[in-house]
C-alpha cells in the first residue's frame, strides 16, 4: 500500500499567505484574470485554426478540434491558478499539491493504473451486457496524424493529459483550496464538485443523471486531494479515465465522440446503462465505476481517513 503521508504535507497545513487578500477576493481575481486569459488564447487559437483549415465559421471546428479548443481555454486558466497560488496565496508547490518527489510520482502512477483498470472493467460490463458491439481494432490509429475524431493515440494521450491536468489545477487546485480557506473542507468539496458538474452541463448529451455522475466524480477527485495531500492521484485518474474511454474504447467522453483503438458501436438498447450520447459517465455503468474507484481511494488512504472526517 502507498503511504498517503509520505513526503506530502497535509492539505490542511496552512501555507504562508498574504494577509492582505481574503480567499473570496483571491477567487474573484483568479476568475477575472484566468477568464480573460482563457478567452484571449481561445479566440487566438480559433482564428489560427480558421485560417489553417479554411473553415467558414467557428462551429465547423468543433467536431475536428474540440479537444484542442478545450485545452486552449483551460491551459491559460490553469497557468494563472499556479501563478496565483505561488504569488498571491503564498503556497509552495508542495502545498498546492504538485510536490515533485517520489510520493507524487507514485500517486500519479497509481491514479493512471486505477483509471485504466476502471475503464477496462466498465467496458467489459458494457460488452458482456450487449450494450456495445466490438467491431475490431484499428492499430493504424497509434500514429495516425489526422485531426478530430481520428486523432492518433499519441496525440490523444497528450491532449487528454493536458486537458485533465488543467481541469485539476483549476478545480481541485486553486478553486477547492481557496474554498477550504473560505468555508472549510465539507462545503469546499461540495461546492467545487457542483461547479465541476455544471461546467459539463452544456456538453452534448448532458442530462440530469449524467450531471449527477459528474458531481460524484468531482467529489471523488476532491476527496483524493484531501486524502493524498496532493493533486497527482486526481490528475492520473482523470487522465487515464478520459484516455481509456475515448482513445482506447471509442466511447463518448462527457459527450465528446472519439474514434479510438477499439472500434465500438453503442447499441440503442440500455441507454440507462451506457449513458447514451454522453457516454458511460451518463449511465449506471459509470456510477458503478465511480463507486469502485471511491473504494480504491478509501483503501489506499485508510490511515488518513479519520483526520479528514474530523476536518483536521
Based on CA atoms alone, the radius of gyration comes out at 19 Å
Instruction: Give the biggest beta sheet.
Output: 2 strands, antiparallel
Shape: globular
The secondary-structure class comes to: mainly alpha
Query: What's the helical proportion of residues?
Result: 55-70%
**What strand order characterises the main sheet?**
1-2
**Helix and strand sequence:** HHHHEHHHHEHHH
How many beta-strand runs?
Answer: 2
- Beta-strand proportion: under 5%
In the predicted model, the low-confidence regions spanning at least 5 consecutive residues are 1-9, 12-17, 306-312
Mean pLDDT: 87
Integer count of domains: 1
- Count of DSSP-assigned helices: 11
N- to C-terminal distance = 23 Å
Describe this protein's structure:
The chain is built from eleven helices and two strands, in the order ααααβααααβααα. The chain is mainly α and about 300 residues long. The chain has one domain (about 25-310). Strands 1-2 form a two-stranded antiparallel sheet. Residues about 1-10, about 10-15 and about 305-310 have low confidence and may be disordered.
Distinctive features:
312 residues; mainly alpha; two-stranded antiparallel ribbon; 64% helix; globular
Give a short overview:
With 312 residues, the chain is mostly helical.
Write the layout of secondary structure elements.
Elements: H1 23-53, H2 62-87, H3 93-96, H4 102-128, E1 132-137, H5 153-183, H6 185-198, H7 208-228, H8 232-248, E2 262-266, H9 271-274, H10 284-300, H11 302-310
